[in-house]
Amino acid sequence: MNIWTKQSHLPSCVARTLRGSTALFAVLAACSGCGGGPSALPVPSYDPVGGASKAMELYDKDGDGIVDEEELKAAPGLRAAMATLDTNQDGKVSGEEVGDRLQAWENAQIGLMMFSCDVLLNGKPLHDATITLDPDSFLEGTIQQAVGTTSLAGSARPKIPKENRPTPDSPPGLQAGIYKVRISKMVSGKETIPARYNTETILGQEVSFEDPSIRDNRVVYKLKSK
After folding, report:
1. Are the beta carbons of 143 and 135 closer than 8 angstroms?
2. Less Cβ around it within 10 Å: N or C end of the chain?
3. Model confidence at 26: pLDDT above 50
4. Which one-letter DSSP state was computed for residue 81?
């Protein structure tokens, strides 16, 4: 994987190491005392202990200290992040594993990242659809929602809306973390996408350098109308 440093349009004190992928790169980390350039979002404070405790409270319904295969059905964000969360590869998620992921994001000190994806409906590009990445419930208040619209080719780059950035000229992007993904397309006031992809979503996404689908630039949501 190619690695380089982004210099243009960024103050030298916040230039970050970037990875060779069109889908993902670190845009801007919070930095005090930097003059000029757009305002950055602060680097989130992930609270590994508190966040892990909240995740277990939300999803460990039987209180045995793990989120098992059955419980993961109600946790699309965790389920989508299993490649990095499930470090012992037992098909389950423990509070310690959640805490370790939160600590990894905390250590990375990444302010914003770019993320792109493709959306297919019945194997064909879905255009003019809204894709929303909502922070998983245990990360609410830590990271922000991101929103995008798919192109004619079905591609989108969800980002934090301008009204939620420090200033209108703040750079686009979203924060590292685990999200629930909602995909919607309204036509004449009617939702055309099944509820399992929006109001009752089964979709999730981890946004991080370590996530294999992002690292390989292959984030594709394959939807079916039936």
Report:
1. yes
2. C
3. no
4. T
